[in-house]
Amino acid sequence: MKRGAIVFSKKGRDKGKPMVVLDSDGEYLILVDGKLRTLEKPKKKKQKHVQPTNFSAELQPPCGRAMQNADIRKLIENFLISEGGSERCQKTM
Asked: In the chain, which end has fewer C-beta atoms inside a 10 angstrom radius, N or C?
């Protein structure tokens, strides 16, 4: 999975929540959601424990400033609006 992809967690306490991929580390993904999992404290999760979506975005904030948690939350919010407002994962594998 590439940087900026939106995925849904399939396992764990955050099951069903949308998250953004910051980086991939072998079989692990580094995930953030801007609320509980911030840029300062990202979640490391195995790829098999997430459900990918077709939505991906550039993680470059406007005006050349540093990425902030509000930017991540806005990205997830825009995804949920475009997909019909569902905050939970519809189908698990």
From this structure: C
Q: Are 36 and 19 in contact (CB under 8 A)?
A: no
Q: Which of 93, 87, 68, 92 is nearest to 19 (CA)?
A: 87
Q: What is the pTM of this model?
A: 0.83
**Each residue's pLDDT tens digit, 28-87:** 999 999 999 999 999 999 999 999 999 888 888 777 788 899 999 999 999 999 887 655
**By three-state DSSP, how is residue 89 classified?**
coil
The H-or-E segment that residue 53 falls in is strand 50-56
Chain Cα centroid distance, residue 50: 10
Residue type, 65: R
- The token pair that represents 24 in the structure block: 């991939």
